[in-house]
Specification:
168 residues, 36% helix, 6 helices, Spore Coat Polysaccharide Biosynthesis Protein SpsA, Chain A
């Protein structure tokens, strides 16, 4: 019997940075996840024409990608709206200038699935590019340290229902 792979919702809050968002979407599309995924871009009232053109390109190239507006209240509000619109069983947030490796969705899903019920989300190391470029290892999870310093990247993978419970 073939293994079932559930739908994963990829939520991308977006404000401007139209020169980068297509690469973000393409990094998701290049994933080797054996199941299906959906991409929901939540536009936070972008003001530049480059972003508006990038959305048109994305819609033309990937018509199944949903692009919604959030109301211009910041990335947290955009992520919350994306969570409300998500249809997947699992959820991952990406910023509109993030790229994920081709195996990110598959490995994250398998990692979370194979943990006990106390594991709520999966995250990994990051590679930073821009003014500073380099590998940034993420510390091992520590309940004490997370209270002091939030070191979990925005790009973390979780069950949608777990996320909704935590937000209540």
């Amino acid at each position: 019997m073939a293994e079932f792979f559930p739908l994963i919702s990829v939520i991308i809050p977006s404000f401007n940075k139209g020169n980068l968002i297509l690469a973000t979407v393409e990094s998701v599309k290049a994933n080797d996840y054996q199941g299906k995924h959906e991409i929901v871009i939540i536009d936070d009232y972008s003001t530049d024409s480059v972003t508006k053109e990038a959305y048109k390109t994305i819609q033309k190239k990937y018509p199944e990608t949903r692009i919604e507006e959030s109301g211009g209240k910041g990335p947290g509000n955009a992520r919350n709206k994306g969570t409300q619109l998500a249809r997947g069983e699992y959820l991952v947030f990406l910023d509109n200038d993030d790229l994920i490796s081709p195996n990110f969705l598959q490995e994250s899903y398998l990692c979370l699935k194979n943990q006990d019920a106390s594991c709520a989300y999966v995250y990994g190391d990051t590679v930073v590019f821009g003014a500073y470029t380099g590998w940034r290892p993420t510390p091992v999870f520590s309940p004490e340290q997370i209270r002091i310093l939030n070191y979990v990247p925005v790009t973390c993978f979780t069950e949608l229902n777990q996320f909704k419970k935590a937000a209540e």
